[in-house]
Design brief:
single chain; 373 residues; alpha+beta; 3 domains; 17% helix
Length: 373
């Protein structure tokens, strides 16, 4: 292989795939990036056997070839180069790199030993709007369980009825759901995507416009973005019937200014105890946020609220879980819906009747109160 390309393009290709590098594998080649020529472009590939990322950049190709290179050394050296033309050439089992007055030779491993990234059979395909999809992933990721005791909760549920796609995550203490409208006729499906895949997709999509193509087969999913492909294994398991967790109706609903409420919750969190608890109380025209710690002291603040239903004297919530939901509300006003101090609380955007609602359904977040703190 012999080619030349710009340093900034080379860095872009490396950066996009090195997220899939296996850092602690007993297989040395999983710490490498595969370089090869594909349809007149330089292709980068990396995998940890559960997640695989491929990226393409434009290059002036003189001679085809392939080799795997240690990702850390390759990335570090290329990052140190100026944004000028870089010449790459494979000589035996090494990659020679030249840029202005800087030269290096990095030893690699044969491309034939690199794990094969299995193709995803096109059993199901759907197009997703890139900006909205990125936003939806960001909104539900915080609710994914960090425990491995229930694998089905360690990822995000993708559930489609053909007209809309629901992204759902839960760790049993809170639940996040976002629905995206789909264009045209689409197949129905239900899969669970690992959290790490979702995190990398958010980074890869970045500021991209257009659409992301999702292709699904029995065991894998492929996400096609601009010049990047992500292949991930699917989590095997049955996601809980989350819709049963969401109360069918609420006897109390409070409307508040989102920014003011977030500010007071943050302040109250400073004084919270070892279980990260804050107390909410609601009257007809006011919401009270308070916390108290024997070691630190106590805090209390009120914000204007419009309450529909009977006042509530005391509801205890984990402030970290509460903030994860509040930070993903996309309106100026917040609606808090609840029945009592011990059943699920729903956070959602509030749009006055005079305001046109967004095409995609607003973000929905459920959090369970702390019982007997």
């Amino acid at each position: 292989m012999k080619l030349s390309c710009l340093q900034k393009n080379l860095i872009q290709g490396i950066t996009q795939v090195e997220k899939a590098i296996s850092r602690n594998s007993t297989l040395p080649i999983l710490s490498n990036i595969l370089l090869e020529i594909d349809q007149g472009r330089l292709k980068f590939s990396a995998t940890n056997l559960e997640l695989a990322i491929s990226s393409w950049i434009g290059a002036r190709i003189e001679k085809p070839g392939s080799l795997t290179i240690p990702a850390r050394i390759f990335s570090s050296f290329v990052s140190s180069l100026p944004n000028k033309k870089v010449d790459l050439e494979i000589k035996g089992a090494s990659l020679n790199i030249k840029c202005e007055n800087s030269r290096a030779s990095i030893k690699g491993l044969p491309a034939k030993d690199f794990p094969l990234i299995p193709p995803v059979k096109k059993e199901c395909e759907v197009n997703l709007p890139a900006p909205a999809f990125k936003r939806a992933l960001s909104q539900v990721i915080p609710a994914v369980s960090i425990s491995d005791s229930r694998p089905e909760l360690s990822g995000i549920l993708f559930k489609s009825d053909g007209q809309e796609l629901a992204l759902v995550a839960t760790d049993s203490y809170r639940l996040a759901e976002k629905k995206l409208l789909l264009k045209g006729a689409n197949p129905g499906f239900k899969i669970i995507i690992p959290q790490r895949t979702a995190l990398e997709l958010v980074k890869i999509i970045g500021d991209q416009e257009g659409e992301i193509k999702l292709i699904i087969d029995e065991n894998q999913a492929l996400f096609e973005a601009k010049n990047v492909e992500v292949v991930t294994r699917l989590i095997d398991g049955n996601f809980p019937d989350y819709e049963r967790i969401i109360p069918e109706k609420f006897s109390r609903q409070a409307i508040l200014d989102l920014r003011e409420f977030i500010s007071q919750v943050k302040t109250s969190a400073i004084f919270s105890g070892v279980i990260d608890d804050v107390v909410l109380s609601f009257s007809k025209s006011r919401a009270l946020i308070s916390s108290e710690s024997r070691e630190i002291g106590k805090h209390e603040a009120g914000v204007v609220a419009k309450l529909k239903g009977r006042p509530l004297e005391k509801m205890v919530l984990n402030h970290r879980y509460l903030m994860d939901g509040l930070n993903n509300i996309s309106s100026d006003q917040l609606q808090i819906s609840f029945n009592d101090a011990h059943t699920p609380v729903m956070l959602s955007s509030y749009h006055p009747v005079s305001v046109k609602r967004p095409k995609n359904r607003d973000f929905l977040y459920i959090v369970m109160p702390i019982k007997n703190p």
